[in-house]
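G., before I forget:
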Amino acid sequence: MLDKSDQIAVALIPLKAGQDARIRTEGGDQFLRIAEDIPRYHKFALVDLASDTIIRKGGDVIGRLFVAVKAGRHVHTQNLVGATLNI
Amino acid sequence: MTQGFQGYRRTDGSVGVRNHLLILSTTGLTGPAARRVGMALPAAKVITTPYGSGVVGEDGALRDRMLLGFARHPNVGAVLLLSGKPPEAEAYRDQIVSTGRPVELLLLDDHGQDTLQITNAGIRAGAQLLRQLSQEPRESASLSELFLAAECGRSDPSSGLAANPLVGQIADHITSQGGRFIAGETMEWFGAEHHLEKRAVSQEVADAIRAAVTRRMDHAAAAGIDLIGNNPGPTNIAAGLTTLEEKSLGAVKKTGTGPIAGLVEHGQAPDGPGCWLMDQPFYAPESLSGLVAAGAQMVLFTTGPGNSFCSLLAPTVKISANVDTCARLPEQIDFDATGILLGAQSLAEATEALTAHILQTGSGALTFGEILSEGEEVISRVGASL
């Protein structure tokens, strides 16, 4: 987890479905059950997120969800799109 | 400790980290002969353009800026100029001579339009220039005499998380010592303009940055390009980058955190020290060529899954923080920055190691791109020919 305003974290190692990942945060380590395989350097949701949520990474807006995403699931092109580009 | 390197002092005040003979063909007719001369003299660097004549307006100005930028580059010690267009080639020669570099001009008109004769003359003249260059010694130069460019190609999230912030540390360090730093790839400021604008030294520079991004995005829209799936491209997406904003926010980290002195055009040399931006295309070949034509002596090139493209004239240091890439491409990645994300190395430790690597490269240590001859320079076109 890069910034306390982020709702996502980045997998620094490949993560497997069902595994409890250790999440580094400013306030210390937390654990989260991973819901699907996450390739290295890809993003996953830290909490259940509703559709239309603006997503931040490192505190900066990187896009908007166009479907809801559950905690521990992969956040990528299947659910996230640029917030300022037209679609 | 004074940090420095051993370079080639030019009479125009610049310092080269290499002492290249440049074989420069400025017309389409002389390109093949220039390449033949280059094959006979493998130590020389060859740049050709098929667009010799009929290039007008903005295109003509861009062509002059790029060709003269390469010919007067700090890493170029001498020039062998081949042309089929006498008045222009003579003007180029005079502008190169004014920087104190030896130049030999070979015109098709002086060789009876015979490209074999011009090849023969070129090999002989080039051999003399190479011998002369080999006798020139390196001399001590300081970090402040470095002009570094940054590029990212085939980025992934490790670029934005580690490799680009590392290069940004170098940008801050070099500029704090009085050196110059430049980065371009305008489209990859989109979504991160606010970070760049607030670092601009003046409102004019901030406005110019925003206007440049708007122009680039309008240009894509006018061409009917849907950036989704195009930038980030398929390689970026497979590696974990989802949106252009995410890619841009990672990309701009390579410019550091210091003041942005100004915005220059593609291939235009900045007129002072500090951190500069160049308004230019974002794909590596055109982008690198513009940064190098502006006079950057060396390029720091970050990559996620790997990118082989290098500048021909400026040693291009490939940097990756992706553990798979560094394991898979040991003859492409010059600097392994994986320690940062693995927690094995602090950003400060990596910065110190990269600074030492840059100074070593500046003093003559070869990059993999130089060893494998990956380098090339590209002269962009913007409009129609006559």
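The CA atoms of residues 13 and 290 of chain B lie 21 Å apart. The mean pLDDT of chain B is 96.

More on Monday.
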